[in-house]
Amino acid sequence: MKRLLKYLHNYKKELIFGPFFKLLEAVFELIVPLVMADIIDNGIASGDVPYIIKRCGLIVLLGVCGLGFALTCQFLAAKCAYGFGTELRTAMYDHINTLSYSGIDRIGASSLVNRLTNDSSTVQNGVNMFIRLAVRAPFLVIGAAVMAVTIDLKLSLIFFTAAPLISLIIFVIMRKTIPMYKKTQQCLDKAAMLTRENLEGARVIRAFSRQQEEINEFSEAVDDIASSSVAVGKISAILNPAAFMVMNLGIVAIIRFGGVRINTGALTQGELTAFVNYMTQILLALVVLANLIVIFTKAFASANRICEVFELAPEEDGKSAMDSGDGKIIEFRNVSFAYESAGDSSVRNISFSLNRGETLGIIGGTGSGKSTIANLIPGFYKATSGEVLVNGENVYNMRQDLLRRRVGVVPQKAVLFSGTLRENMKWRSENASDEEIISALKTAQAWEFVEKLPKGLDTQVSQGGKNFSGGQKQRLSIARALVNTPEILILDDSTSALDYATDLALRKALKNDFPGMTVVMISQRTTSLKDAEKIIVMEEGEAVGIGTHDRLLESCEVYNEIYCSQMSEREGEKNV
């Protein structure tokens, strides 16, 4: 929690004056029972109506002033809490964007969203309640106890008996509920993850008619949230009845023994009334304090979850600039890599080099490590062992912004963002002209359908690019990566939705339009890779063959099997 206090730096005035005005309200609240005692002892006892009216007017004035102080405190508390929440979310979002792929994988996207929204709101609410009640409740307890002692020391012993009992009840309940709040937040994480997966995979779910199964799984997740919340609620529900029971027993004791004190002349009726009011104030303040502890418990649990995000180290950024010399532009030296949650390495002992302007093809079965190799080139992940070099420099010693400015990446899953096509095409270069964009679209074989759109480049892209087909999204993603002419283009199985003719046209256009560009192409099709200067055949994380298409047909059994199976399929298609 201490780590988050720096986001209150700009709200020092609100932190000071907010509790101060709440303190003034509490002072006025403590004065009211004394005025009431005065009305009973001096006004009602003597039948002095004007005196009663004046004192009642004073109570109204105290109430109005207290209301004014309370509203001022509410304003300052809201300004501080919401300002704090805004700065916290901004800082958290900025930090998340500095994380490496490994950092994001460690917590998970759904949990990060939940921490950015739900947890930050809980902490924000904790700050709000702290300013409004953290000073007022303890002050009322102490102030009312002091006022009671000044009225009658012996009778005030009832206060000092009841208050510890309520405090004990609060302690026992808080000890039970604190661990349960963390569990509830974890249940919320699971529900958020299922919601995200179901919304993103809605088409797949419907294709397999899995709606009911997904509904049942989500129902189980929200039932877990409900059962966890109910369990906490059952324990917390004991708090108010138990506290009020002790309070009412205390009031009964005050009236009983106070009556005796009145008969002996040691106490007046007005003072007894004030005593009962102070007893009520103390015990109500303790109940408020207990509820405040509940809020703080939730806030601390959420703050710890947020701190876990801030504790993730940002992606390491080197200081070297990327050289643009000739020779080997990409080189792997005995590279191995294992994901944090995986027991075994995804790729092992990979070594190869690629000259500027050449094309590297990577082929292999599902899970063989093809995409892992692609992700190591721009430094998305750090190699467990070995070195990944670009232009002779280790990628982890380079400035990541300069490296990725020169590397165009088209991931397996084509991702488009809400906005216009033009805005999507300008992701690599904000100053890209329409001519550059159209040129990239033509190379990616996308201009043929973009120019037919009624609004052309001003066409709105729906969330996730749902208003385009899979093949269109892939071609648009390729075009986006080509804008501003990257030195290295990585196509991570990003032509899978293209037909053979479009795939061939794309490869020819890349060679003709960008002859000096180095291309790393991952594909399941041997026909897409046969013209590459170098092909790596992956199997179970190892390179079982490296060479040209013709050489691999002769020397690599795995590549030969893939090629023959695909040729047989194509022959079968032709015969049909």
Descriptive overview:
Mean pLDDT is 85; it is low at 571-576. With 576 residues, the chain is an alpha/beta fold. Strands 6-9-10-3-11-12 form a 6-stranded mixed β-sheet, with helices on both faces. A 4-stranded antiparallel β-sheet has the order 2-1-4-5, covered by helices on one side. It has a two-stranded antiparallel sheet with strand order 7-8. It contains 20 helices and 12 strands. The chain has 3 domains: 2-311, ABC transporter transmembrane region fold (Up-down Bundle); 324-406 and 491-497 and 522-576, Rossmann fold (3-Layer(aba) Sandwich), CATH 3.40.50.300; 408-485, Rossmann fold (3-Layer(aba) Sandwich), CATH 3.40.50. Helix 6 (157-200) runs antiparallel to helix 8 (211-237). The protein has helices spanning 12-44, 49-96, 101-107, 109-134, 136-151, 157-200, 202-207, 211-237, 239-263, 269-311, 370-376, 400-405, 421-425, 434-443, 447-450, 470-482, 500-513, 526-529, 549-555, 557-575, and strands at residues 328-337, 347-355, 359-364, 385-390, 393-394, 407-410, 419-420, 460-461, 488-492, 518-522, 534-539, 542-547. The longest helix has 48 residues, at 49-96.
| CATH fold title of the largest domain | ABC transporter transmembrane region fold
Annotation, overall tally of beta strands: 12
> What best-fitting shape do the alpha-carbon axes yield?
elongated
CATH superfamily of the largest domain: ABC transporter type 1, transmembrane domain
> What's the CATH architecture name of the largest domain?
Up-down Bundle
Indicate the proportion of strand residues. 5-15%
Radius of gyration (CA) equals 35 Å
Give me the side-by-side strand order of the main sheet.
Answer: 6-9-10-3-11-12
Mean pLDDT: 85
The profile of the biggest β sheet is: 6 strands, mixed
Report the uncertain regions.
Answer: 571-576
Backbone structural class: alpha/beta
Distance between the termini: 68 Å
